[in-house]
Specification:
- There is one protein chain.
- The protein has one domain (3-273): Acetylglutamate kinase-like (Carbamate kinase), CATH 3.40.1160.
- Helix 4 crosses helix 5 (83-107) and helix 8 runs parallel beside helix 10.
- 40% of the residues lie in helices and 16% in strands.
- A nine-stranded mixed sheet has the order 1-9-11-10-6-2-3-5-4, with helices on both faces.
- It is α/β, with parallel strands linked by helices.
- The protein starts with a strand and ends in an 18-residue tail after the last strand.
């Protein structure tokens, strides 16, 4: 099985050189078990990302939570089940979510910009290039892009399904060098640790083989949608696009700094090819 445990410090140390980094946070990271927002954790997340940008890193944040925040804002007892009601709640929640992010990042002297995506945008060549141009311009100006699926407009035919996949696609779009997925589980295990007390976390996965795929399964937490199988799919997209990917616990956002420092945190999925050196931007007068 193409899985390695400890003793892969050279691969971990290489993460220090990553400049363009995508960080994905799920609803379970942003909220308490009550479903209410964890402001302390969001504040710490903003501080960590702001510090990385101050170091010269280029950070893109992919976030879930629009529907969950909308449910709280509207004081609903539970998430709606009808699509149009989900979309309406997401529209309210997305405004509130961006307001919260903007407030916390401004406390650390940084500006954020919102990018909402659906699959049909990415699959259209011209619109895909426009999205890339937007990312590049925001990053060039030192603005932190905050990305979410456009839940207020999305239907099944154009949905990514969950934000693990979205974060991997964003990593591919911007030629990211590292994708960090913060989750309610601290890494990739050889079996489900919630069911098997003997489950062992894997430090490094160099190749996603059928045996590795058999280790994944099940759904995420009751507040999130992404399970380990979706994270493995994200790892395939990210690593084949040239990025390393790490799955780690979102309980303390400072783990992001430890990962980038090369510490043995979470599970590292190793990049399958080098990052291209060139990035194409279409000028306004060419469109």
């Amino acid at each position: 099985m193409s899985i390695r445990g400890m003793g892969m410090s050279n691969l971990r140390n290489g993460l220090k050189d990553a400049k363009r980094i995508v960080i994905k946070v799920g609803t379970s990271t942003l909220t308490y078990d009550t479903g209410k927002l964890n402001f302390s954790r969001i504040d710490k997340l903003a501080r960590v990302i702001a510090d990385l940008v101050n170091q010269g890193k280029e950070i893109v944040l992919v976030t879930s939570g629009a529907i969950g925040v909308g449910v709280g804002k509207l004081k609903l007892r539970e998430k709606p089940k009808i699509i149009r009601e989900k979309q309406a709640v997401a529209a309210v929640g997305q405004c509130e979510l961006m307001h919260i992010y903007s407030k916390f990042f401004s406390d650390y002297s940084h500006i954020v910009g919102q990018i909402l995506l659906t699959r049909d945008v990415i699959e259209n060549q011209e619109r895909r290039q426009n999205v890339i141009n937007t990312f590049e311009t925001l990053l060039d100006k030192g603005i932190i892009p905050i990305v979410n699926e456009n839940d207020s407009m999305a239907v099944d035919e154009i949905k990514f399904g969950e934000n693990d996949t979205l974060s991997a696609i964003v990593t591919e779009l911007i030629n990211g060098e590292l994708l960090i997925i913060l989750s309610d589980i601290d890494g990739f295990y050889d079996c489900d640790p919630r069911k098997d007390p003997d489950a062992k976390m894997i430090s490094v996965v160099e190749e996603i083989t059928p045996e590795v795929e058999r280790c994944a399964g099940g759904v995420g937490s009751k507040r999130g949608t992404g399970g380990m199988a979706t994270k493995l799919s994200a790892a395939k997209i990210a690593t084949f696009s040239g990025a390393n990917m790490v799955i780690a616990s979102g309980e303390d956002p400072e783990i992001i700094l430890k990962i980038i420092e090369g510490k043995n945190e979470g599970t590292l999925f190793v990049s399958k090819k080098p990052i291209p050196n060139t990035r194409v931007i279409v000028k306004d007068d060419e469109m």
